[in-house]
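Quick start: what a row looks like.
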Amino acid sequence: MRKRSDQQRSDPRRKKCPFCEKNALYIDYKDYPLLKPYTDYFGNIRQRYYTGTCLKHQKMLRTAIERARFLGMLAYRK
């Protein structure tokens, strides 16, 4: 039996957060092309499970999408 320290620490199938890979400190609400893929056809915000973002960046992404909706850059839920 292998020791716990010898096993892989992360699941190889697990998605990586695209914002962590870019070392993003802030998600800009004015960057429409960046926000669009994180919403579905109806304008809902996609879940972390589907997008692969970490909790920290998912919260920043949600805030940015809500601000963009308020200014009319993105559609509200239909």
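That is the whole record. The chain has a mean pLDDT of 86. The longest helix spans residues 55-70.
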